[in-house]
Write a structure and sequence with these properties.
This protein is of the alpha/beta class and about 450 residues long. It contains 13 helices and 16 strands. The chain has a seven-stranded mixed sheet, sandwiched between helices. A three-stranded antiparallel sheet has the order 14-16-15, with no helix packed on it. α6 crosses α7. The chain starts with 8 loop residues before the first helix and ends in a 6-residue tail after the last helix. The N terminus is likely disordered.
Length: about 450
């Protein structure tokens, strides 16, 4: 197997900034950088070994390429839709400056290629791409409308599923023989990729187009918790009667949508799931690519189920900082109680963060040892220590995130976390029995 080594942004920045002149000993800066990059490539190729770790569905091309050959293909994808080649650890002597000094440089490079690029190189006839929330390249703010367009790299037409249309139209699908869905999820009900999955399944079912799902691990897939959504509170932030933390992969969830007849009029979609290999729900999985602009690392993804509830309040959950979903705060939280504070500003993924330019008092969770679990202690803590609780909840939005109006009332009435959680147990027990029918992995 041949492996292609892709340019690593960090390495390139190092190579660009470590020098300050154009030539040394007749060697141009450009040729020197080319030489160093060639050394990196050669070293990487030497260290390639068989990968014994989790193998995502997209990597199992032998399973699905025959389904795509000779077909007109549509792909639902974003920046996480990649094929991983391998991970190599590099130990190199990188030139420090043009005087000839060197310094040791160590890094890990994950070799990867976007699914669309890979399939195009294999002459698969991709006709169009559908983009979820945050867009095809994953740069749009949360909730921001994403417009149709043309992908600059591939020249393929991009149709947004988070703008005018959340569901592919008949016209979108009329010249397609098959649709591929490959998006990394994080296992939380109000993370909208599973709502996009629902609408894609529904459109494919209505237009007799089969759907191929390339499965990926759920980084929060080891547990199930939170209130189960009440049907009257269905929205794009939660369409089905599932808990806030649902404990399923995209592939498993698709089989549940079919099995429970959750599509309109009870129709079902012709789906094929390409399973992950070497994966089970208790096996930790670290996402190598941020699944959306404001989930930059494992810490944020682990804390997201709990801190995500702040999205339905007027409390900032780290948007507008580099510690998204790793802190929370607001100007109206008690400055005497909280010793930590920060000021949100516009940044990547948050053009207009809550309380932009204002000092927010709250809690920093970026360095704690986060547990893969769901807790209400942070939101209860913030509510109790608000100087004006009337400013706290954005009621309709909070209900959409929680999936129930009861939770806000319980917090406002000072109900203890253990008692709130007890009120969910009957619904959770019923859900777990339903979930068990559709699990692909242990």
């Amino acid at each position: 197997m041949c492996f292609k080594v892709f340019k690593n942004t960090v390495l390139l920045l190092v190579l660009i900034t470590i020098s300050c002149a154009e030539k040394v000993g007749g060697e141009t800066l450009e040729s020197r950088n080319d030489r160093v990059e060639e050394n990196i490539s050669n070293e990487a190729l030497k260290q390639v070994q068989d990968d014994k770790s989790i193998i995502v569905g997209a990597n199992r091309m032998e399973k699905y390429l025959p389904m795509l050959r000779g077909k007109r293909v549509g792909i639902v994808a974003n920046q996480t839709s990649v094929i991983f080649k391998t991970t190599v650890n590099l130990k190199l002597e990188v030139p420090k400056d043009l005087s000839g000094q060197h310094k040791p440089f160590e890094t890990s490079v994950q070799l990867k290629e976007h699914l669309v690029d890979s399939l195009l190189s294999l002459e698969i006839n991709i006709k169009k791409v559908f983009a979820p929330e945050h867009g095809f390249r994953g740069t749009a703010d949360a909730g921001e409308d994403v417009k149709d367009g043309i992908d600059k790299r591939t020249k393929l037409p991009i149709f947004s599923l988070h703008g005018k249309h959340k569901k592919p139209t008949k016209q979108h699908l009329e010249n397609l023989d098959i649709v591929v869905f490959d998006i990394q999820d994080v296992g939380v009900r109000f993370y909208t990729y599973i709502s996009t999955l629902h609408y894609v399944m529904e459109a494919c079912a209505e237009n007799n187009v089969p759907l191929l799902i390339l499965d990926r691990p759920n980084p929060n897939g080891s547990y199930v918790d939170g209130p189960v959504l009440e049907v009257e509170n269905s929205s794009f932030l939660g369409m089905h009667p599932i808990p806030l933390v649902h404990g399923m992969t995209i592939g498993e969830y698709a089989t549940m949508i079919n099995g429970e007849r959750w599509l309109k009029n009870g129709i079902t979609c012709n789906i094929t799931v390409i399973e992950n290999d070497n994966y089970n729900h208790n096996r930790p999985y670290s996402l190598p690519i941020r699944p959306s602009p404001n989930l930059p690392n494992d810490q944020s993804i682990i804390l997201y189920p709990s801190l995500g509830l702040f999205e339905g309040t007027t409390v900032n959950a780290g948007r507008g900082t580099e510690f998204q979903f790793q802190r929370y705060g607001a100007p109206f939280l008690d400055a005497k109680h909280y010793t930590f504070n920060y000021t949100p500003e516009s940044n990547f993924g948050a053009k207009y963060p809550k309380h932009k330019g204002k000092i927010c008092y709250g809690v920093d969770l970026s360095t704690i040892e986060a547990q893969r679990s769901f807790t209400l202690k942070y939101i209860i803590d913030a509510y109790k220590n608000s100087t004006d609780t009337s400013k706290f909840f954005d009621t309709n939005n909070f209900t959409s995130h929680a999936g129930t109006a009861k939770l806000q009332k319980q917090i406002e009435n000072g109900v203890a976390e253990e008692n709130i959680k007890s009120s969910w147990q009957k619904d959770l027990t019923a859900y777990k029995k339903t979930r068990a029918k559709y699990l692909i992995y242990d």
